[in-house]
């Protein structure tokens, strides 16, 4: 990627980040939602860790990584909704007139999700530490952050594909629902051996399960290569697949 | 008056059916949450302190129903706010009809929709193996409490819309709805909630509402929880309708 293309990507990322300070009212629900979700789940289902299968891990620690993935999901979906809004207002069409490769524009749009998701993640992490969740270690935190940022950009590709297809913000529930289902149809609430058979079957084939295991490892034990590489591989596979869909969507939109 | 209310009810229902993006969240979000809860926490019925139930799905149906009715309240508020933003509300006010009919028209529609939501979730439960132990009288009790609660939540949404006058503010209360729901016994028995949710749940009317909806599903109809459920639903409806009428008066004074 040339310096000029990098400048385009950086400008688009900066524009997306500017929205947080310019329209904080729109950003606040997305920042608070994962924390509300984790605190709420812990209040309601906190006693679930008495079930054999959880071992020594308490429920709050078990679901904080799910909150991280939810933050990635919400941010990815928000990226698609914002693009749909830009399409509705004609701004995206003007952007496509600029002499930059289409893929550079796409990269700028989805890369912003990777950075924006750090805001809800940081808020949730601070609340989690304050309420007694153990520090996952520097390596655990770094692996978790990299995976969450990657997942946010990947889910942004998914949401962008829908935005380019439907070209309206009314597709927002579809984007949110896809991200929500992808994250929660995993061993989100309980270890795999405690899941109902049908959910265990879905979780086994859901690549997000590996990403969750990679994010969770530092919180519930030690960071190991055995939990890290499947997470990276699953994420890379999803990024390639959803990235290809988004690129195809952009090609069709442009033509 | 009756003719005007019926005409506005018909208009509200038609508007909802024409915009499925408003109806979809009423069933899809609670269904996803229901699926994930039941699949992930199915073993929790073996915890000490859990009431005798045939399965976790039977227990969770009331939670999904309460969640759906709450979301319906938010969408009622959004629809009302859109009418204010679009100027339809001002045209209604200028027409020679009783003012209170403006509030009642949409609330009757919300009540009818609540009835459909109750039947949908009970049908869904039966389809996936739940049993309504209370039989036909139990279904009628759930229907009555659900419709009353639906009207109450709709009135809350409408009161907020009349005060805020814009749809995005009404949409912003969605995370708050989740918070209030989490600190109730809608999803888990009160005896098994963690502190401080267990204490808050004791004073949260949603706990009594959900328990009233749940009782006819998991056991034969018992007087105490059903009466408490009715009282909670009626209390919410009475207070919310009073707030809605007050908000309408305030809006008319400013007009």
**Largest Cβ-defined interface:** A-B, 36 and 34 residues
**What structural class results from the helix and strand content of chain B?**
mainly alpha
Instruction: Tell me the fraction of residues in β-strands of chain A, as a range.
Output: under 5%
Report Rg of chain B.
18 Å
Query: Given the structure, what is the number of helices of chain A?
Result: 11
Number of domains of chain B: 1
Average pLDDT for all residues of chain B = 88
- Return the string of H and E elements of chain A: HHHHHHHHHHH
Question: In words, what does this structure look like?
Answer:
The complex is a heterodimer of chains A (255) and B (255). By secondary structure, chain A is mostly helical. Chain A has one domain (3-254). Chain A has eleven helices and no strands. Chain A has helices at 3-22, 24-45, 59-89, 91-96, 102-116, 118-130, 138-166, 172-184, 197-205, 208-220, 225-254. The radius of gyration of chain A is 18 Å and the shape is elongated. The model of chain A has no long low-confidence stretch (mean pLDDT 90). Chain B has 255 residues and is mainly α. Chain B has one domain (2-254). Chain B contains eleven helices and no strands. In chain B, helix 1 (2-18) packs across helix 5 (99-127). Chains A and B meet through helix 2 and helix 8 of A and helix 2 and helix 8 of B. Chain B: Residues 21-251 form the ABC transmembrane type-2 domain. Chain B: One of its GO terms (cellular component) is ATP-binding cassette (ABC) transporter complex. Chain B: This is Transport permease protein.
